[in-house]
Hints:
The complex is a heterodimer.
Chain A: H1 4-7, E1 21-30, E2 33-43, E3 48-52, H2 59-66, E4 74-79, E5 82-84, H3 89-94, E6 97-100, H4 112-117, H5 129-142, H6 158-171, E7 176-180, H7 188-203, E8 207-212, H8 215-221, E9 224-229, E10 232-238, H9 239-260, E11 281-291, E12 297-307, E13 311-315, H10 322-329, E14 337-342, E15 348-351, H11 355-358, H12 366-370, E16 381-382, E17 385-386, H13 388-401, H14 418-430, E18 436-440, H15 448-463, E19 467-471, H16 475-481, E20 484-489, E21 492-498, H17 504-511
Parallel strand pairs in A: 3-8, 3-9, 6-7, 7-8, 13-19, 13-20, 15-18, 18-19
Antiparallel strand pairs in A: 1-2, 1-4, 4-5, 9-10, 11-12, 11-14, 16-17, 20-21
Helix pairs in contact in A: 14-15
Chain B: H1 4-11, H2 15-34, H3 39-51, H4 54-79, H5 87-104, H6 110-137, H7 143-163, H8 195-213, H9 215-225, H10 227-232, H11 237-264, H12 275-285, H13 290-314, H14 318-343
Amino acid sequence: MQISHLSATNCSSIPTDTPLVQMQGIRKAFPGVLANDGVDFELRPGEIHALLGENGAGKTTLMNILAGLYQPDSGQIRLRGQPIRIGSPRQAIQRGIGMVHQHFMLVQSFTVADNIVLGQGGGWLQEDTRQLHQELRQLAERYGLQVDPAAQVAQLSVGEQQRVEILKAIYRGADILILDEPTAVLTPQEVEELLQTLRALAAQGTGIVFISHKLKEVLALCHRVTVLRDGKTVGTVAVAEQLQSLGSAGCERLLAQMMVGREIKPASRGNLGEPGLLGDPLLRLEGVVALSDRGLPALQGIDLQVRAGEIVGVAGVDGNGQRELEEVIAGLRPIQAGRVHFAEPINLAHIPSDRYSMGLLSDFSVAENTILRDVERDPYCRRGWLDWQAIARFAQQLVLQFTVKTPSIQTRAGKLSGGNAQKLVLGRELARQPQLILAAQPTRGLDISAIEYVHHQLLQQRQAGAGILLLSTELEEILHLSDRIVVLYEGKIRGETPAETVDIHQLGLWMAGRA
Amino acid sequence: MQGWFWRLGQGSLVAMPLLGAGVALVLGALLIVLAGHNPLTAYGVMLQGALGSQRSLTETALRATPLLIMGLGLTIAFRCKVWNIGAEGQYHLGALAGAVVALNMVDQPAWLVLPLMLLAGVVGGVLWSGLAGWLHLKRGMNLIIVTLMLNYIGILWVRYMARSPLRDPNGFLPESAQFAAVARLPRLLETRLHLGVVIAVLLVGILHVLLWRTPLGFQLRAVGSRASVARAMGIPVGRNVLIALLISGGLAGLAGIIEVSTTITRLKGMISDNYGFSAILVALLGQLQPLGVLVAAFLFSALSIGAEALQVRMQIPAAVAQVIQALVVLLVLAGDALARNRRK
């Protein structure tokens, strides 16, 4: 299926002035990892340049170096032709480099305007707030960044907070804008708006670095693509040229191949596409009502059933009750009314939507993380004592089986890349041989080969007779995996359809709350 | 950033704290010069006073004992992110509960009195920290404030008990009668060291095992690492918080009764030299590692014993010595933080 904004490619020619940024032979090592190994990168004024690569390829490290957060071990950076050293984020900002991080750097209790001028050192006295608000409104309007300067950041949606970050960079005079996986947290509509804003910025001469691993967005938005793999530059591709000679499918295949270093099969369910034997109901929700963290109704009477051997996909735009539904089923959120029934005895695996607040302890080792749920069980605990040898054996086996890339099982889990951290969670949960799997955004922020891997594992579990409830805001993922699809909108199930006879137009209407 | 400083920071988690200690000693030397003395002589006196003879080593070990026991308890609490600032009060309540047993069982044999007395000390600390835990977990009060405030109640309660209900009717001072021989922990050979020192050292091993070899220690650390993850993994957060709090309270109480039944030998108004607060520093200085806490407690004790020697032998004001002590702690922690940040 095609999403409209992604097919509208922007093929204007690459600007040819003096490069804004030239990075040559950048090398950066961390203990145990060579994050950048002789990377070259170039950005021209008015250009949108994608930095593409799998998780752990070194994209974020490279840009953190440009933003002054890290110092390279060797290599040279030129800004507008001049060789420079960027010693700190402050220096980077002074030189017109603004970065929007994956995790936003905003003070939640401040207003939008306060956040934007924070750290600017404008003197002791309060600035003229009204004038500032006026200024920000004008700036925001020029680039289509709809946001109220007087609003408190804590009350903004994720998409709005991202706009604040972009506005902050522009307000501080950035003509080099770095965005680290900006679309990973956005709804489809917000992605559309973001892409328009970025085009408007580029048209005015801003150079934009767009870190991503979503090929479609990259092809729709960017002039050039530089691909990184294992800390090295694989190559730089001019998008318009390649689109002309290869077409969009060919282009995607080329980039995917550059990213992973091997040919990627088009996603298919293969022989795991056959439905498993439909068995007994494992999970039944009847009229479930629950509140959000802010005490507002988030689930308003959910009826849902998952049977053994099927994947039920819950589609919907982010923020329509997915998080609350996940937590209710995982037993982490009380319900106000209704009932949650499990087949007894049930072994529930939970692949959480936010692994760092629900799934993994970043400062525990990989080995310790594999037994978080089962620390009191045999064989990890015998007669009240932890058996570290048994734990190490299990962790070693799990790391091998689920291909978690880690220097050792003693490494802190926080050092793993996103994809490997997710494989670790997946491995721990699936190793318990669950009958029921709650998979919430199981591939969010992952690269192509990790996504493929997770999908394969889930299909395999279904084949083995597990029931799976898949919560995802990626419609393609839902369509690819589900046997049955329901749509969640404002805390209610808007519609239900078997996957074979799905009408995408109808799904879209349900997701938008119509019909 | 390729300088020696950078490499030092990356190289070692030991070098930076040592460098911090060095800087602190240099700054301290300046202070001593300002006070009109030769810093090298002064440091010599401190070293001699803290570690230079069997007598001074004994003194240092004795002073380290309550710091160590309480520092170990706080290690458990802080590992679980339970900010118990109330060890001082729990220490006093432990001393009080133990003293009640000791003063009322003068006719019983030592094998009965000693275990009961130590147990009472632990129970006193557990109850006092439990009160804080109840207010925190069931009534939603801020744990730092509750434990801090209960310190003052505990300290003044002990002072009152020593002045009035438990006062020795035959004495002239506001303090209890001396504990009977059956209620005093036995000494080791012919030294002033006592069984409490042995208990403290044994506890190092016990708590190390608790933290790293038992499911309880694992769960306490998991809750401290990130409570929301622990909860999602089915680890009962509230129960672990309470357990961590009670362990730290119980050990503080144990330290209290050990101190009054050995070096002090009676219950009186002043039974602590801010041990409960110093123990917080000792736990942090020891990196929340039991073995590290052992080293930190000894170092901390040596610094304060050395400071006393400075005052006695060179008439350098105790305040100067205390500033040096504070500088060492501060800069060692700063060095450690620096080394850790560089590693990230």
